[in-house]
Amino acid sequence: MFPKGALVAHLERRPAPVELHHPEPLTPYDPTAAAVELYSEREAVVWVPDAYGRMVPMPKHLAPPPVLATQPRDLSPLPLLDPVAQRFIGAGIGGGALSAGAGYGIGQIISAAAGFGSGAAMWIALIVLALRMPARTITSGASGSTVHIRKAVIKRNKFYG
Fold this sequence. Notes:
41% of the residues lie in helices and 6% in strands. By secondary structure, the chain is mainly alpha-helical. The protein starts with a helix and ends in a 21-residue tail after the last helix.
C-alpha cells in the first residue's frame, strides 16, 4: 500500500518549526531630536463626546459642526378644528342639505305626475265616457239594448251498473 520509506515518514511526527519574534531594539530618549512647538503655531483643540459619552480632544478643523439652537415655537392655542377642515365640513353639510332639498322637490314632482296619471286621467276618462253616452243613445233610437242570458245546467246521474 505505502512504500516502506513513506510509511516510516508518515508514522514519525515531527514538530513544526517555531518562529521567534525579535522586537526592534528600543532607542534611548533623545531630548535634542524633539521639535519645538510654539503656542501660536498650535492648532485649536476642542473636546467632543465619543460613542461612549467620554470627552476626547480633537483638532477644531476635524470636529463636527456644532448643533444649531432650535427656533422658539409659537405656543398660542390652536383652534379645535383646522379652518380648512371647517370649510370642508360646512361644504359637506350644505351640499347634503342642497341634495336633500333637490331630492324632495324631484320626489314631489314625480308623485304629482303619478297622481295625475292615476287620479286625473281616470276622471278625464269618466268624463269622456259620460259625454259619449248620450250620443250613442240618440243615434240608436232606443234607450239601449238589453240582452237576457239564461243559463241552465242540467245534471243527470246515470248508473251503468
